[in-house]
Protein backbone atom coordinates (compact mmCIF):
# COMPACT_ATOMS: atom_id res chain seq x y z
CA UNK A 1 0.00 0.00 0.00
CA UNK A 2 1.72 3.21 -1.13
CA UNK A 3 2.27 5.79 1.59
CA UNK A 4 0.83 9.13 0.53
CA UNK A 5 1.75 11.23 3.57
CA UNK A 6 3.11 10.97 7.10
CA UNK A 7 2.78 13.51 9.88
CA UNK A 8 2.62 13.52 13.69
CA UNK A 9 2.80 9.72 13.81
CA UNK A 10 -0.10 9.38 11.36
CA UNK A 11 0.42 7.42 8.14
CA UNK A 12 -1.91 7.98 5.19
CA UNK A 13 -1.97 5.33 2.45
CA UNK A 14 -4.06 4.36 -0.55
CA UNK A 15 -4.54 1.09 -2.42
CA UNK A 16 -4.93 1.66 -6.13
CA UNK A 17 -6.83 -1.51 -6.94
CA UNK A 18 -9.52 -1.14 -4.30
CA UNK A 19 -13.27 -0.95 -4.32
CA UNK A 20 -15.43 2.16 -4.29
CA UNK A 21 -16.18 4.45 -2.60
CA UNK A 22 -12.97 6.42 -3.03
CA UNK A 23 -11.10 6.37 0.28
CA UNK A 24 -7.72 6.32 1.97
CA UNK A 25 -6.33 4.41 4.93
CA UNK A 26 -5.11 5.85 8.22
CA UNK A 27 -2.67 4.20 10.62
CA UNK A 28 -1.85 5.64 14.00
CA UNK A 29 -0.13 3.42 16.58
CA UNK A 30 -2.46 0.42 16.98
CA UNK A 31 -5.41 2.19 15.32
CA UNK A 32 -6.55 1.63 11.74
CA UNK A 33 -9.35 3.31 9.79
CA UNK A 34 -10.53 4.09 6.28
CA UNK A 35 -11.91 7.52 5.36
CA UNK A 36 -14.07 8.43 2.37
CA UNK A 37 -12.59 11.18 0.27
CA UNK A 38 -15.82 12.94 -0.71
CA UNK A 39 -17.27 13.53 2.79
CA UNK A 40 -14.30 12.64 5.05
CA UNK A 41 -16.32 10.19 7.12
CA UNK A 42 -14.80 7.06 8.64
CA UNK A 43 -16.14 4.01 6.79
CA UNK A 44 -14.18 1.29 8.62
CA UNK A 45 -12.13 1.02 11.79
CA UNK A 46 -11.56 3.74 14.34
CA UNK A 47 -9.01 6.34 15.36
CA UNK A 48 -8.87 8.72 18.35
CA UNK A 49 -10.93 11.91 17.95
CA UNK A 50 -7.84 14.16 18.05
CA UNK A 51 -6.18 12.14 15.27
CA UNK A 52 -9.41 12.20 13.23
CA UNK A 53 -9.46 16.00 13.53
CA UNK A 54 -5.88 16.26 12.27
CA UNK A 55 -6.57 13.90 9.37
CA UNK A 56 -9.71 15.83 8.39
CA UNK A 57 -7.75 19.10 8.54
CA UNK A 58 -5.09 17.61 6.25
CA UNK A 59 -7.61 15.96 3.91
CA UNK A 60 -9.65 19.17 3.49
CA UNK A 61 -6.50 20.86 2.18
CA UNK A 62 -5.87 18.04 -0.31
CA UNK A 63 -9.35 16.66 -1.05
CA UNK A 64 -9.28 17.39 -4.80
CA UNK A 65 -5.76 15.99 -5.06
CA UNK A 66 -6.80 12.82 -3.21
CA UNK A 67 -9.83 12.32 -5.47
CA UNK A 68 -7.72 12.87 -8.57
CA UNK A 69 -5.16 10.36 -7.31
CA UNK A 70 -7.94 7.80 -6.75
CA UNK A 71 -9.40 8.42 -10.23
CA UNK A 72 -6.12 8.36 -12.17
CA UNK A 73 -4.29 5.77 -10.04
CA UNK A 74 -1.20 7.98 -10.29
CA UNK A 75 0.61 7.82 -6.96
CA UNK A 76 2.53 10.73 -5.48
CA UNK A 77 3.36 12.05 -2.04
CA UNK A 78 1.23 14.81 -0.57
CA UNK A 79 2.65 17.47 1.70
CA UNK A 80 2.13 16.59 5.39
CA UNK A 81 0.20 18.68 7.87
CA UNK A 82 2.65 20.98 9.60
What descriptors fit this protein?
single chain; 82 residues; alpha+beta; 1 helix
Describe the structure.
With 82 residues, the protein is α+β, with helices and mostly antiparallel strands. It has one domain (3-72). It is built from one helix and five strands. The chain has one helix at residues 49-72, and strands spanning 3-7, 10-13, 23-28, 31-36, 42-46. The protein has a five-stranded antiparallel β-sheet, covered by helices on one side. A hairpin with a 2-residue loop joins strand 1 and strand 2 (10-13). The radius of gyration is 11 Å and the shape is globular. The mean pLDDT is 95.
SS summary, helix count: 1
Following the backbone from N to C, one meets helices and strands in this order, namely EEEEEH
Average of per-residue pLDDT values: 95
Alpha-carbon distance between the two ends: 23 Å
How much strand?
A: 25-35%
Number of domains: 1
What is the percent of helical residues?
25-40%
Cα shape: globular
**Strand order in space, largest sheet:** 1-2-3-4-5
* Structural class by helix and strand composition: alpha+beta
